[in-house]
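Customer ticket, subject: "Can you confirm the structure for Thyroglobulin type-1 domain-containing protein?"

Message body: Hello, I'm evaluating your service for our small team and ran a test protein. I'd like someone to confirm that this is what the system normally returns, since I don't have a reference to compare against.
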Amino acid sequence: MKSSECKPQQLTAIGNRLLDWFSVIMADSKKRRQHQQQKNKVHFPAACKLEARWMFGHLDLNNDGELSTQELYDLEHDQNERCIKPFIDTCDLDQDNTIDPREWCRCFEKTDRPCAAVRRRLGNDLSGSYAPDCDSQGFYKPTQCHQAVGVCWCVDEHGVEFANTRTRGKPNCGKYSLCFLMNNASKKHNASNNVEDCSQ
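Agent reply: Thanks for trying us out. I re-ran your input and got the following:
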């Protein structure tokens, strides 16, 4: 599929979903203590998102500091996401059939993390609607509330609700909050190996 067959908003949405997916895979990998062994030091632009950096290293199987068409094949050919390949194709700015760290990071610089993506999609007209509460990184805050109906609940940073936390008024999301604060501090300092699973 050519990038022209995917509308700009579809390409934006797939970029947001990929960034969120990278974050989940990164957290799961850290939980399982699977560490990447990179032989070559890859230099990323300073503003490159942590999860984009991590996924680049995960995909760069031969550690040459570039993503080849072979290394991107499985990602690009996801049967459930028809716009992944067109999105990835837009990353190859010099069209040399490889993606270097600068191109990869630039591709994800305008993507939003899950909560920020929902807020952007909702726009400014939120009268009576639930609007997620985001942290400064664009992830969901642990306590979410629908003000119009007076109901709140606890979520993980990707917006997945924890069972049995929905209540009138504010629930005690404290045990989740501490975990999220520690994870956000780790992410802010690019210490991705310190990210913990907050669902337990």
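A couple of notes from the result: The chain has a mean pLDDT of 83. The chain has seven helices and five strands. Feel free to reply with more questions.
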